[in-house]
Amino acid sequence: MDLLTAVFVAPFLDMAGSPVFLAEVVIVGVLTGVMYSLVALGFVLIFKASGVFNFAQGVMVLFAALTLVGLMERGVPVWLAILMTILVMIGLAFAIERFMLRHLVNQEPIILFMATIGLAFVLEGVGETLWGSNVKALDVGIPNASFEVGGILLNEFDLFAAASCAVLVAVLAVFFHYTTIGRALRAVADDHQAALSVGIPLKTIWVIVWSVAGFVGLVAGIMWGARSGVQFSLSLIALKALPVLILGGFTSVPGAIVGGLIIGVGEKIAEIYWGPLLGGAIENWFAYMLALVFLVFRPQGLFGERIIERV
Amino acid sequence: MKLRNLTLSLVGLSLVGAAAGAAGSLVTTAAFAQAEQFFPMLVYRTGPYAPSGIPVANGFRDYYTLINERDGGINGVKITFEECETKYNTKLGVECYEKLKNKGPTGATLVNPFSTGITYQLIPKAPVDEVPILSMGYGRTAAADGRVFEWIFNFPATYWSQASAFVRYVAQQEGGEANLKGKKIAHVYHNSAYGKEANATLEVLAKKYGFELTLLAVDHPGQEQKSTWLQVRRLKPDWIFMSGWGVMNQVAVKEAAAINYPMDHFVGNWWSGSDADVIPAGDGSIGYKSTAFHGAGTGWPVHQDIIKYVYGGDEAKAKENNIGEVLYNRTIVNAMFGVEAVRTAQGKFGNKPLTGKQVRWGLENLNITKARLKELGMEGFMKPLKVTCRDHETGGSVIIQQWDGKKWSFSSDWIPPISEVVRPMIEEAAAAYAKENNITPRSC
User: Fold this and answer.
1) Which residue, of A87, A193, B251, B346, is most buried by count of CB atoms within 10 Å of its CB?
2) Does any domain span residue A189?
3) Number of domains forming the structure of chain B
4) Closest approach of chain A CAs to the CA of B258, in angstroms?
5) Chain A hits for B219, Cβ within 8 Å
6) Domain check: are B163 and B284 in the same one?
7) Residue B228 falls within a domain, yes or no?
8) In CATH, what number is assigned to the domain containing residue B203?
9) Do A144 and B47 touch (CB under 8 A)?
10) A172-179 — which CB contacts under 8 Å span 24+ positions?
11) Domain for residue B22, yes or no?
């Protein structure tokens, strides 16, 4: 009986007893979820355009952030360093297309997935060799002060990150739905050979999409790197994006953002109100559990393309 | 024909000479090998914990090199060492140990696992392989009872002593032990065997002194901790103690600053108080404290010797290699313990390469006096200590260091642990281990 009360009654009484704190938990969850979406977006872009689950996306975030901070440490001004990093990520996209993807056209998705595992290790090694393994502080001038509004503590940095992500998602959604390149990207994702047969330049499309994913990785790297310093573990934030992808769908840009918000808010509420019952630190596995529940009822995710199998 | 013979003779002579030279070289190498003491180095220069692993590895390397370059080895016995990359991964760490344990003319001198997970795996191997383990300030706390853990040493302090010293420090700051009653203390810990080590001690002390303890776990790697700090914000603890590692530390310091938590009431353990932990948070980390058992910076003669003998006077290069950073200095202490254990053992067994068994004796009879610290260029850098058969932890005192935005400085006197609570817990845990593993404790 005590257990039932602790699980089904006490948390809700707690929420009702301090609504301001509950509001703060929800807001923090939303802002954290946006940060998850930022990482998930990189996965969605590449999956949408090539049907490849890019295992290297987390390492691309790390590589972009390492490059940026490495340039800044050598005295390059922030704006120029960002520009140069974008160019590096575009160069990387060219190299990936030239040396990896070109040789794997029309191969099974699992082959492409395995190739991205290899890519992750290569990027990890190259990044550490070029820029070292020490923690690097990243300060691109984003304000970081905290302030209270009606008893709720907000942080300027978190708000800035959320705004950046919202703009990025809006731009990408428009890009995918209303531009010729966007339609071409979706055609490539459906069928490589069919896309080639109607004159869609597969190589160019791949370079574009990997470049955009690299840019998204840079934005994610700046936001996460400014929080924790730029270091190897930045690549592990990809683990946070997986439940977001399962929930939101691997092919939907809005899905990534909605999925991120649900996971962000869900895990915070679970950790704070139910975590103490289970010894704490439940948010990581809770996010996956939540995603699995969605998977049972909607395998394609909330916004994923409907799976149609014809006999 | 004559010319041909002459040529052949010359070629033949050359070959014989070369062979003789090679043989001589082999003999010389063998002779050198006889006067070498091998130290295995389990390092993690890559992977998620590399920012901590790099200064650790550099500290060991530099101290061993210093002993060779300045002193010609330990009483004439040259130190040799080999690194093996563990990535802070327990499985890789055990593989590295197996790879290195038989190297050198007498096998591994001792092993510094520099990981609690690896230490736990190596503890049963130590008496079998006769390679002592020096898990300095980490690993299995119960190993402080040398009667049960003959081959394991964890001086100069353990996690349990550290937690109790932290509580004693809070009591000092609050005006006495009586004032602990009703205070709120939160322990933010890495959700791993290491992070949980201090929990039991804190729970016992909470009961004893009447403070309210809240345990807040953070999952690996700790990149995202908003939930933890929301709970801190609601709880409003008077003090926070943190047992973190890697990126968890940097994020925690930054989050604490973001919620305007008073940083001088936020105390990390000695694995949460390195330079890498505070730099990413910038000015927000000013005032943050951590426990320590040695100094930070380069203000001791040993550092000047390293710059002179290891880096040829190039201070900038020494800085690039982390000299003076907290974790670098920690391994200077660690490497010194190993070297001095060999030196102590040489006093009994002679100035020659020693086996692990002989070095174990050296570790158990180690006596680092104040005078010896001065000779080593470490006066004031750490506390003197004396190991005994019964006590492999020695004093267990810690000191509090504080970050001022540029450097760490001591901000307290040495704080002894609450031994009347901690030592019985250690002996109880050691006795349980002995029972589980059919070990008959030594009587000493």
Assistant:
1) B251
2) yes
3) 2
4) 6
5) 281, 283-284
6) yes
7) yes
8) 3.40.50.2300
9) no
10) A172/A41, A172/A45, A172/A212, A172/A216, A172/A253, A173/A253, A173/A254, A176/A48, A176/A253
11) no
Looking at the 3D structure of chain A, how many domains does it have?
1
Interface subset of B 192-211, CB within 8 angstroms of A: none
3-state secondary structure of A300: coil
In a mutational test of the B interface, the residue from A144, A158, A228 whose CB has the highest number of chain B CBs within 10 Å is A228
Which one of B258, B292, B326 terminates a domain? B292
pLDDT in tens, A277-311: 988 899 889 999 998 888 888 888 887 766 666 66
Asked if B396 and B161 touch (Cβ cutoff 8 Å), the reply is: yes
Interface test with B, best of A223, A233, A271, A288 (most B CBs within 10 A): A233
ipTM of this complex = 0.89
Dist. CA B248–CA B22, nearest whole Å: 54
CB neighbour list of residue B151: distance below 8 Å, 6 or more residues apart: B123, B126, B127, B130, B131, B132, B133, B360
Residues B223, A233: C-beta atoms closer than 8 Å: yes
Question: How far apart (Å, rounded) are the C-alpha atoms in residues B142 and B216?
Answer: 24
Tens-binned pLDDT, residue by residue, of chain A (311 aa): 788 898 999 999 999 999 999 999 999 999 999 999 989 989 998 888 777 899 999 999 999 999 999 999 999 999 999 999 999 999 999 999 999 988 988 788 899 999 999 999 999 989 988 988 888 889 888 888 899 999 999 999 999 988 998 888 888 878 878 888 888 887 887 777 888 888 888 888 889 999 999 999 999 999 999 988 898 888 888 888 999 998 988 888 888 889 999 999 999 999 999 999 988 899 889 999 998 888 888 888 887 766 666 66
Residue A53 covered by a domain: yes
Instruction: Report pLDDT for B420.
Output: 96
- For residue A309, being part of any structural domain is answered with no
Residue B333 lies in a domain: yes
Flag whether B395 is in a domain: no
In a domain, A302, yes or no: no
Q: Please, what's the b/e burial string for B41-70 (b: 16 or more CB within 10 A of its CB; e: otherwise)?
A: bbbbbbbbbbbbbbbbbbbbbbbbbbbbee
Contacts of A136 in chain B (CB under 8 A): 280
Pair A114, A53: CB distance under 8 Å: no
What does the alpha-carbon distance between residue B103 and residue B209 come to, in Å, rounded to a whole number?
51
- Give the range of the structural domain holding residue A207, as residue numbers without chain letter: 2-297
Contact criterion met (CB < 8 Å) for A232 and B50? yes
Residue-number span of the structural domain to which B374 is assigned? 34-157+297-386
**Are B144 and B163 members of one domain?**
no
Q: What are the mean pLDDT values of chain B's consecutive 10-residue runs (444 residues total)?
A: 44 45 41 78 90 94 98 97 95 97 97 94 97 96 96 96 98 97 97 92 98 95 93 97 93 94 97 92 94 96 98 96 96 98 98 97 98 98 96 95 96 97 97 96 94
CA distance A229 to chain B (A): 5
Whether residue B145 sits in one domain with residue B42: yes
From B292, B312, B340, give the residue that closes a domain. Answer: B292
CA distance A274 to A272: 6
Alpha-carbon distance A133 to nearest alpha carbon in chain B (angstroms): 6
